[in-house]
Amino acid sequence: MFIEQGVHSENKFWKYLIGSVIIIATSFVGQVPLLLGIIYETVAKGVPYPAGNEELMHFFDPNLTLFLILISFVFTMVGIYFVVRYLHKQTMRSVTTSRPNIDWKRVFFSFSLWSAFTIISTLLFYYTNPGDFVLNFKPVPFAILVVIGVFLIPIQTSTEEYVFRGYLMQGFANLAKNKWFPLLMTSIIFGAMHLSNPEVSKMGNIIFVYYIGTGLFLGVLTLMDEGMELALGFHAANNLVSALLVTSDWSAFQTHSIFKDISEPKAGLDVILPVMVIYPILLYIFSKKYQWSDWKEKLTGKIQIQENNTI
What we know:
Low-confidence stretches: none
Oligomer: single chain
Pfam families: Rce1-like (PF02517)
Transmembrane segments: 16-40, 64-87, 107-128, 140-159, 180-197, 203-223, 230-247, 267-286
Number of helices: 12
Domain CAAX prenyl protease 2/Lysostaphin resistance protein A-like: 143-241
InterPro entries: Rce1/LyrA-like_dom
Strand content: under 5%
Distance between the termini: 12 Å
GO molecular function: endopeptidase activity
Largest sheet: 3 strands, mixed
Number of domains: 1
């Protein structure tokens, strides 16, 4: 059982608090290249220091900004490995899956399914609302974006999955000795993590329905499938395909994408529809393909403390 792999007698919750501090610290270290770049531009070239997150996103060329933001997740992933391996005496596999090895077929199926949906829905929006988009395609910048995106966006999304659906999911399980509390807490914290996203200021707090709902969906995927593979594939597809297809002046990622959304941002069906309709459909597809059962037990059941062991 996936979530139980981190629950044992000596894996106290205080270790997860210390581990979280270490992971956050490595994230800050990973932001040093971005900070040095800003300092260089402001000191050497006299460019005004960015006053906020929105100005920061437009401070450098989009590809350079994306690279500097994403590179911090490489440092964070190293921090996660260090904490899992040396503080908790677990393997990375134990916070990834309950299977003997990572099931890459699951990762790629989830990635392919959500990529196809994202591409089709984006093209549908483009052809039904052509006035909301402009063609933004520039071959060379786009090619650079593809390289950056393919190599670094999966690291970014995997880092978030390891933090929330892996590390903290098992951490809160150690605290609560049940499954519903870790599912709920990781979803709320995942949503809160996006508080500084520019979409929040443009659309309002209603956008947290989407963020928390997405966290809940990814958590259900992880608990029902006894591993993070489906969540890893979905999250990578969501961020990578979106970064390549569409950008806007108010989105978290400013990219040299194929299209640019010039519509006025508003919270509507695009916020509610995924959580209320699309995610349940995806859960149904996954449940049939992988023959899930015992939903109540896997999502809300109690957890027994195991004897200490290195997994």
